[in-house]
Specification:
InterPro entries: Ribosomal_uL4 (IPR002136), Ribosomal_uL4-like (IPR013005), Ribosomal_uL4_dom_sf (IPR023574). Helix content is 34%, strand content 14%. It is of the alpha/beta class and 207 residues long. The chain folds into two domains: 2-45 and 97-206, Ribosomal protein L4/L1 (Ribosomal Protein L4, Chain: A, 3-Layer(aba) Sandwich); 47-95, no CATH class.
Length: 207
């Protein structure tokens, strides 16, 4: 699959051949749904668990006599009514993590990239800007017709100046190629890949 390469400001910069094994896979809604569900479940945070009676280090020795003390009969300092005791009916730790095999994860990423290759994929030569300012970057993106939610994926790492400028633009997110994932790709209107990112993603599946 051959696509046009442009500069970040929208000017033409040649062509690039995309690997059909990575960018030409027919997407399946059931697999993409399964991958997205897996990612979102693994992102869920859990409440900090509280310590119950069995979790606190207090003595279990009976500390008062059975009768004649004028107080209730207690045999455990870990009871919830004492300072330092375990909490009754406290928050429990909940684990939402799911397992998913590597082959299915790889296939899901290929399908997400392929769905954007059909509609919503832009390849740029690099993210280098003469003036790494938010206003200048917005002007380039507008000139290139990149509106809505835009996900920019670079190669090994992201240029710090570009990352800071993009961080001030709502709807524009930047990731290195190693951080490319199905949910973020599908959750944006346009996917922008640098030539380095294309090479990294193709090597990731060939390696």
């Amino acid at each position: 699959m051959k696509v046009k390469v442009q500069k970040i400001d929208g000017k033409a910069s040649g062509d690039i051949e995309l690997n059909d094994a990575v960018f030409g896979v027919e997407p399946r809604a059931d697999i993409l749904h399964r991958i997205v569900t897996w990612q979102l479940e693994n992102r869920r945070g859990t409440a900090r668990p509280t310590r119950e009676r069995s979790d606190v280090a207090r003595t279990g020795k009976k500390f008062g006599r059975q009768k004649g003390g004028g107080t209730a009969r207690h045999g455990d300092r870990a009871a919830p009514i004492f300072i330092g005791g375990g909490k009754a009916h406290g928050a429990r730790k909940r684990d939402f993590r799911q397992s998913l095999n590597k082959k299915l994860r790889a296939l899901g990423l290929k399908m997400a990239l392929s769905s954007k290759a059909k509609d919503g994929l832009v390849v740029v030569d690099s993210l280098e800007l003469k003036d790494a300012k938010t206003k200048a970057l917005k002007g380039h993106l507008d000139k290139a017709g990149l509106t809505g939610k835009v996900l920019v994926i670079d190669g090994e790492c992201v240029n710090e100046g570009f990352k800071k400028a993009a961080g001030n633009l709502p709807g524009v997110n930047v990731l290195p190629a190693i951080g490319a994932n199905v949910y973020d790709i599908l959750n944006h209107d346009t996917l922008v890949l640098t030539k380095d990112a294309v090479a990294k993603l193709e090597a990731r599946f060939n390696g």
